[in-house]
Amino acid sequence: MRAILLIARKDFKLIVTSPLFCFVAALCTVVWSLMYLSFLRQFAAQGLMANMQGGGAAAQSLMNSVFVQHISVVNLVLIFTLPAITMRLIAEEKKMRSYDLLLTSPISSTDIAVGKFLAGLGAATALLLISFIYPAGTSLIAKFHWPTLIILYFGIFLITALYAAAGLFASSLTDSAMLAVFMAVVFNLMIWFVGQSGAGSDVKWWATLSEYISVGNHLSNFLKGTLRVSSIVFFTSAVGFFVFLCQRVIESARWR
Amino acid sequence: MIEISNLTKNYGDRKAIDSLNFTVKKGEVVGFLGPNGAGKTTTMKIITGFMAPTSGQVKVAGFDVFENPYEVKRRIGYLPETPPLYGDMVVTDFLEFVAKLKGVEDSRVNQLVARAVEKTQLGDVRHRLIQNLSKGYRQRVGLAQAIVSDPEILILDEPTVGLDPRQVAEIRTLLQELRGSHTIILSTHILPEVQATCERVIIINRGRIVAEDTLSGLSNRLRGGSYVQLRVRRNSSELAQALKAVGGVTSVEINGNNLKVHGTGTEELIEAVSELAVAKRAGLVELSHPEAGLEDIFIELTTQH
Prior knowledge:
Largest interface: A-B, 24 and 28 residues
Largest sheet of chain B: 6 strands, mixed
Radius of gyration of chain A: 20 Å
Distance between the termini of chain B: 29 Å
Structural class of chain B: alpha/beta
Order of helices and strands of chain B: EEEHEEHEHHHEHEHEEHEHEEHEH
Oligomer: heterodimer
Shape of chain B: elongated
CATH architecture of the largest domain in chain B: 3-Layer(aba) Sandwich
Shape of chain A: globular
Number of strands of chain B: 14
Low-confidence stretches of chain A: none
Helix content of chain A: over 70%
Number of domains of chain A: 1
Mean pLDDT of chain A: 87
Number of helices of chain A: 11
Number of domains of chain B: 2
Strand content of chain B: 25-35%
CATH topology of the largest domain in chain B: Rossmann fold
CATH superfamily of the largest domain in chain B: P-loop containing nucleotide triphosphate hydrolases
Number of helices of chain B: 11
Strand content of chain A: under 5%
């Protein structure tokens, strides 16, 4: 446990103090700010329209029209930017040969994989916290149901953890940071598309399986404000799967 | 302290090392020599637990590297050919990280980091980012990370590469200081370094050990132990023919007016050669009896096999 935390702390510090992280965070902030303002304006316009037609803009609508939309943009941005954060985790260690230090230290490959994952997850969470400022700031001017928002963010946190794990696995496969970014983006997109591929399929077992592994289906539960154990188990297993793959790649270096 | 038996490593069809057997005693400083691609780095990586052998066994302090890897790794400080450094870290933070990674208790970390900084003379740069340091200083940080956990065994792969002569001398002094308290395996291409620091030498070529002895032992073994070099002004061919008939002479190499006479019995050989050169009126200009240096031994053993 000591080694896991040691690696996680060191890598987290190196990531968040790097110019690249600042650039990614700045880019995310610009995109989210512009989009969030646009969602708020649309919501205000819809509210005005509803008032004129005699109805009221319910608090639930703020959730659907602004927060859910915001989460969708956050998700989209993270699919493409998180790989730039996770690319360094192992690929750079291999390139700079500091990997030798890790593999000749009295720590297991599981310690390395989990420590690196926690560092990536920490950096991703820092980005999520930036995105949380927008809905949190909205509470100053409007009332909404906080628990629903928290569940919404818990859902996106789980997906972000999955992206971080996929990015870590991609980083373990190469010593080229650019290739790691490319592979991680492909993995992230696959995570979304693999669940959609069975929709409407004549092969029943494939349709059922793809429904279960569809990230969209699981996320929709969170977007509705419901917390399902099956979804939490799904995301935790998927994260565990990628971290396990990464651990196997690290371990395999000893046997080549 | 280190026992290696029948160690073999294959990369596909290629044998990187082939049935290596050697032992290193506690406190010994052993030079590990060999041409590029001989299998030195592979052997070192296997000892450190970085990679597994195809067959064979490595025991460090009685622990098998692959059955008790943590016990072994805790006892080894390793400096690979390219120092394993994090450019974004400050020197002391990096050394602290390595010490903790090697399992040093928190209460001893600061003391050991200060000791490593002092021994490698990194005091002036201890608060600087590693990426901003010169190659020489980076090499010293690499050495500091190898000794920071105060390991019983140090495995150093080309520790003085990229250093200026003054820094090389400092590292040599450091290695001499570490002698006795640490068991050291030193791989290098700089042969005077081995002569200055090592008690015993293992020469490896094409994955096999071709020599394993003390420096003087190797020197004596080479070509019967000694040779005499002489330069004459004339009649070198005649003199060479005559020298071959002298008792104790095993061979004569001729290169223009320079002759190299190999034989046994050093003083007798010198006397016989000088007498003959004078008797043959060859115009003896120079006669020397150089000890077979490590360079000669290295070239001889790595080209023979």
